[in-house]
Amino acid sequence: MKENHKGDFRESCIKSLKFVSRFSKYNNDKKIVDNLYNLLNNLQAKNVLLYLPLGMEVNVLPLIKRLRREKNVQVYVPFMFEDSFKVVPYRLPLIKKRFGIKEPNNSFVKTKIDVAIVPVVGIDGAFKRIGFGKGMYDRFFGRLNYTPTKIFIQRKLCQTSQIITDHYDIQADYIITS
Hints:
This protein has 178 residues and is α/β, with parallel strands linked by helices.
């Protein structure tokens, strides 16, 4: 029963995110990225996991470029691997892979991330993530032997007061939205 609520909620949130206007998309993303940059500074993050955005996700590419220029922050992105992903350094060229997601080339780097920026489709009453339903982020964080700070970002808040997530769904330390 819980999965039906979760699936219906996910579908509703995706529909809502698809209708954000092009103008407000740009302005919302800029505000979110500026707030995110300030929070990363306050947290004194050194190793940051970001993501390469899909159309309805907040465009964090300007933040990636800014952090890389500053040299005191290492930027990492997910690299799909088996049923989850591993963390690889952000670098060009990017290659389009499964689900239309772009990735850098695979590299074998063992690092401990301080902060993870995680895109969300929605959040429930426990501030847990509703994603696209593949479970990759849940499996990734579930397999870590440490707990980085998790910041959820979303262009337009889509939240329910009900608790519709499962015990393995990840929970936010911070949520940034427009």
